[in-house]
Amino acid sequence: MGRGDGSGRIVSPEGADDSGTGILHVDMDAFYASVEVLHDPSLRGLPLIIGAPDGRSVVSSASYEARRFGVRSAMPVSQALRLCPQARVVPPDFTRYRAVSSSVMEIFHSITPLVEPLSIDEAFLDVRGVRRLWGAPGEIAALLRRRVEAEVGITCSVGVAATKHVAKMASTISKPDGMLIIPASRTQEFLDPRPVGAMWGVGPKAVEALERRGIRLIRDVRDSPIDALARAVGPALAQRMQQLARGEDARSVETERAEKSIGHEETFERDIIDADLLRSELLRLADRVGGRLRSSGWQAGAVAIKIRFADFTTLSRSTSLSEPTEVGQRLGDTAVALFDQIGRRDPVRLVGVRAERLREAGTGAMALWDDDEEQRRLEDALDDARARFGVGTITRARHVGRTGERGGSDGPRPFGRE
Fold first, then answer.
1. Which domain holds residue 322?
2. Is the peptide bond between 176 and the residue preceding it cis, with omega within 30 degrees of 0?
3. pLDDT tens across 194-223, in order?
4. Same domain assignment for residues 311 and 396
5. N or C: less crowded end of the chain, CB within 10 Å?
6. Active-site residue, 254 included
7. What global pTM score does this model have?
8. Which residues have C-beta within 8 Å of that of residue 32, sequence separation ≥ 6?
9. Rounded CA gap, 152 and 141, in Å?
10. Is 256 contained in some domain?
């Protein structure tokens, strides 16, 4: 099983059997770090940590040289530097990452129109309909890897399989800079000996619950009674895991994906214990989320908050809204109400607000009256003013004077991953 530092990787030999396949999962290798090396070749071969150098931030990404010292994404930069004191800390440049990602995605679309981006650095491709143009799936995967390296200058890893789940697992195992092909007839042989944590969508808490019951391998998931799985992870996840463990995955490559959530979070320069200040920050973040919802044409059906304390304990709370909204005021009031339900009042280092269960604005039933109408008019006016005079020049009075506690000058970073 491949690990995050690249050890234990498995790759297919040239000309490997790709019968029954057609789904590719392509994943850039240590994407942020690779783009920084592309920008500054003197960084090549060095252990790199992508993150703010103030020691308060977390690792956005790390090169494989740093990962071999135990550095991982979402780890505090201070901890990462203790593990790898010789590492170079490079501030992230998301404008640069988006530009490189766009170039990579253009290559994907030049091969097949059936491309499903999962994030800035990975995508599924369905290549079953382009065999006459480009060859068998294994040949197409090799072509993609060559083109990404030659035309963009970074490397990627590719999993080739009959289903999305197996293709994603295969790309992970082949990292970095590898390709693993799983012919349809050998799907079960591939799955059975893998640990349950290798399954897509199975997190650490689920793994812990399963292992307590002796369910450690995907083979164990396949063979376990569904009731035993349900007691460990709940009925919905149990059913999905057992289907995936049998190689059953009917999901197709979706070329149009609606955003599942929109969020912002903020890491403070120093830990904050003032509850009123934390409430104000939640309101400010909710305003930012509301602005992104309006600009994207979405409404939120639920709101979630994220609170990380000084000891790095992280709590999340969420609730459904009575009516979907894109109004920052209502998102903020809901976020504050969720915060007030948390009894713990230890110093806080990070807060976040996220809009969930998104739907297109205007697709729901019309209410007899709109409780948010006045606030919506106000926020529309603020949007217009910001468009004319700049985002940083217009804000609510309640936010004025609150910026001194926040980390960095660029405001909150969106939830997300590498």
1. 261-414
2. yes
3. 999 999 878 888 899 999 999 999 999 999
4. yes
5. N
6. no
7. 0.69
8. 50, 60, 61, 92, 97, 418
9. 16
10. no
